[in-house]
Amino acid sequence: MKSSSSGQKVSTLTKLKEAALLLRAARRRKHLSAERLFGEFDCNIRQYAELFTKYTGRDIGTAKIVEVGFGARPYRLATYHAKNLNATGIDLDMPVLDGTLGEFLRVIRNNGLERALKSITRHYVADRIEQKKFMEYYRTGEFLNRRNMIIGNAAAPEIWQRLGTVDLVTSEDVVEHIPADDLKTLVRLIADHLADDGLALIAPNVFTGITGGHLLEWYHDAIDQAGKITDPWEHLRRDRVPVNTYLNRLTRADYRTLFSAHFEILEEIVRQPDLGRQWFTEDARRALSAWPEEELFSNQVVFVLRKRAPGSAGA
Fold it and tell me: How many angstroms from the chain centroid is the CA of residue 276?
């Protein structure tokens, strides 16, 4: 299963430029307040809690939670634990938590040299400072324990057999990096292991949105900046610039079809529904006339899913 490997050939120069931009962003984060650093993750979990109660009638504190794809900066998973919630994370890549030599060697063996060097460099540039701020902010003596992490393929049945029945599955900005066939397997496994009254909250960065091409200059925090060298929705127009990550290129409509095979879609919550609107000029309208605005302004969509009863339509 692919998660972060490039789906296109990317030059060494492009990789170095990307690494420089990411490190620059990491250095900027060092100076942010704890509220700015961790507010997004705290906001996510508050939204999860509201939706879980809305559709199950239960408090999230009673839930057995799985996060699919906690990433190199596992602050959402750490926030779950800081709030004393029962959460386990799954990810292909191993994050750097302690900064010890032994950990670095394990990260290199698991993630490969290129990914590991990014993680190790970012740890020294910013992550260890952020982790210290996190512990001070939440008044916890530990950032995150590896006991709460599973390093492996989330589409592997043995991982879900190990987890058993779960009440809540969450995933943010991850499933767009999983090939469609593996994603079908993952969605089925989530449905198979979700409690009858459970909930899945899956939030892909939809390919057709302005951020969906994963070009750094169109990321949320850079979208308002001038001096762009690519077109808005470049990936739907000329697609001239390869990105250093695998993308399955699924549309919002594709996700609907995928999830509907095993789930009832209770809601589709679009975060920042007008993101990129200022770049939707007449020229962009003409170039993107094949795409409905619902797709172009989807960006990140939270699909609120309840598994279908056996034998129901769509199952």
Answer: 20
List, in order, residues 6 or more apart from 234 with CB less than 8 Å away.
213, 215, 218, 240, 241
**What whole-number distance in Å separates Cα of residue 238 and Cα of residue 231?**
8
How large is the angle between the packed helices 128-138 and 75-82, nearest 10 degrees? 20
Closest by CA position to 294, among listed 263, 260, 259, 270: 270
- How much is the pTM? 0.91
Q: Looking at this protein, which amino acid is placed at residue 53?
A: T
Q: Where are the domains of the chain?
A: 12-307
- The CATH number of 12-307, from 3.40.50.300, 1.10.287.950, 3.90.550.10, 3.40.50.150, is 3.40.50.150
The pLDDT tens digits of the residues spanning 138-197 come to 999 999 999 999 999 999 999 999 999 999 999 999 999 999 999 999 999 999 999 999
